[in-house]
Fold these 4 entries.
Entry 1:
Amino acid sequence: MQKAPLVVYHGPDATAVTERWDQQRRPFGLRGLSAADDVLDALAEADVDCLVCAGGEDVLAVVDDAQASVPGLQVVVFGREDLDAATALEHGAAHFVDVGEDDPVETLEALQSVVDRHHAQHRDRTMLDSLLENIPLSVYFKDRDSRHVEVSDEMPSTSANPYIESPDGCRYHTPEDVVGLTDFDLYPPELAESAMADDQRVIESEEPVVDQVEHTHGSAVDGTYVATSKAPWYDEQGDVVGLVGVTRDISERKQYEHQLERQNGRLERFAGVLSHDLRNPLEVAQGRLRLAREDGDPEHFDAIERSLDRMDDLVEDVLRLARQGGTVTEPDAVAVATAARDAWDVVDSGDATLVVDSDLVVLADPSRLAQLFENLFRNALEHAADRPDALTITVADLRDARGFLVADDGVGIPEDERDTVFDAGFSTADDGTGLGLNIVRTIADAHGWQVTVTESDGGGACFQFGNVHTPES
């Protein structure tokens, strides 16, 4: 149940007026106070909708002190011979009533519309304050120039940090920090330009924007996404004075969507391998088995064994690809040099040489990083099997970015094939499964890394991994 409006009446006749007021049912409560100090105490203790000052030598001082104590308080001055309207209004009174010889009780009753209006405004203000202080969303009001007029407590902490950090390094922690600023003061220029364009479109067309998705920070896979809705803000006359917006963090949903996309992509690749790559060696084995039953030639059994080995390799790679899915959520600090040397120890490297020149420590899943190096090493060794001289593979840090590379001095990858080498089934080796490099890309995607293929200094292939996270980043 809502409280009835309350009016404080200050004047030398306060006691008498209050006694008469309480004798009947009235439209609002009245508290009469003769002393100026008591008025200020009352304003501090209760939600007062209106202060009526009805004379006395200190009336203007009371008006000044009341406005300073409760900004925006509705103050009505009952004028008498010694006080005019201009002076009262100059001191912050909202209304001046020349009561003369009129009954003060009747004059108070005539103020019902003023009191009710302010009471409703006060109620709306407290409702808005409660909303802005407690709702776990970024809510904001902007004027026609896209300056923030009022924002929710949550607004400065919508991003991953409990503050907004502007492009010039300023940090804004509280709603008060943000009020008066535009998006250009708070966000990168491209994001601010897009937001202001939306603001002006909403203000001019009076058409709302509903759940517009924006990528605000980080990579497309594991970055921050928000959904924004904006609508016109109207004043009491129905004129558009700005807009009200609501922004909510949907990063978890978007990251889940990306995860589903990657999983669907892996399922499609699995289906391709099972329907095509496995069918070829299976048909060879079945055909050779029929011939073996007819003539018993041992050559057929050798061919069957090769087909079965080929199928076993394909199945193993498909299972490995399935295990490497998903996003790495709890990475460890791993030295690139250590991971590379450990992976080299488990591949059949023959006469090849590994050169490691890396001081980089990355945040990664140790087993997946090891698998990435193993597949890159095997890929280089397989394609250099017919070389007369020994292959050299180099693992080093990127010169101009945070990341690492794996390069060799082998035959390299033609430029027109570099966009497809990571596709499932792509292989230039006769006995390749076409899944090794696809597994490499899957591991990189799971970590949020960017992988590109170029030519190495030695003319071979060079795989570069960027956007790599370190313990310091």
Note: The first strand starts at residue 6 and ends at 10.
Entry 2:
Amino acid sequence: MTYQPIIPATGIVGWNFLERTLSAQTKVFQASPDLSRDTAYFKAKIGEVNTAEDLVSDRRLLRVALGAFGLQDDIDSKAFIRKVLEDGTLKTGALASRLTDSRYIDLARTFGFDLATPSTKLSDFGTKITELYRSQQFEIAVGEQDDDLRLALFAQRELEGFATGTQSEDTKWFKIMGSPPLRKIFETALGLPTSFSQLDLDQQLGVFKEKSERQLGLNSLSDLNDEHLRDKLTQRFLIRAQANNIQATSSGNIALTLLQAG
């Protein structure tokens, strides 16, 4: 049986407990037999993969590959994933670059099937992908109990990379806007409504920048190199998410009472 993370509470209290016990809990989780077998298989076999077709033809390899990027729900969309991987990211009109979800670009770029030598031939590639997969699987297990804590874990892991990236500030923001988990983190933490995504992208960018600077003191995404700033973002997200959940529950209870009274 796969180890189930211990989450004794929601919101900040649950997050503080998870942070304190994260090292011990992830160690136990990652020793799970199923996870160990999948990652061992991937590391043993990925060097034999030469093309996108090779990858999508092996379901066990594909499960780990997609799971490393949070795209496990696409496991049965083999033709779609093959096209994403074969197109890569270099050519004009590549499929990944036309999708709103930036995780597909990360997938295609990381595997590099549009290059002369794909990344699958690199000696450390199997280790790199299985480490991502292990992290994602633990976050999924946390999310089965509390999805807000899953998102908080994801944000802590992903946002540190934005601090050291060489891309332009706007490119980094567009990547956040194109990542459903990161977008939800920022939208919730900044108190933006669900209808916000319907605005023009440049308008959204301006609002994200302005509100992040005013509410978080985030002048540039490179500031996320500061652990305290990442913690501030995470805590604001969890506080507002919990408040939204309480409000939704209260509204649901009122509606139910009115229906019963009628």
Note: Residues 254-262 have pLDDT under 50 and may be disordered.
Entry 3:
Amino acid sequence: MVKSKEPASLDFEAALTELESIVSKLESSQFSLQESLQLYKRGEMLSQRCNQLLDEAESQIDEQSSSDD
């Protein structure tokens, strides 16, 4: 497997695209148990990164909405 960038350095779109790719790979069931576990762990990290970025965006929207009031 090719070494990818750290999830913390990815923007939302890149993390989501890679996560979708991992899900597709896992659904194909063409990997050994060890490879599947590595993909799963990477997917978990990417999912956490996406959630972090969404939370940050939501906070920015909340701040903007409260300052508009």
Note: The chain has two helices and no strands.
Entry 4:
Amino acid sequence: METLSAIAWTTVDSESAAESLARELIQRGLAACVQVDEPVQSIYKWEGAVQSGREWRLMIKFSAAQNEQLNMFIVA
């Protein structure tokens, strides 16, 4: 049986948080590989005002069958 793979993106507010999340996803078997990008500048609306800040972007490669578990873990 062929396993479908998928890619998810998320951001966090620090390099240490990015590394911690990446390691946790791998250790829990929720991701096959996580790549952490250099800081990116994000501009977004929060609480009615335009904000900006540096974030670290994670590209998460995972089995499509684990989509729900991955989403629940990241949201938690």
Note: The first strand starts at residue 5 and ends at 12.
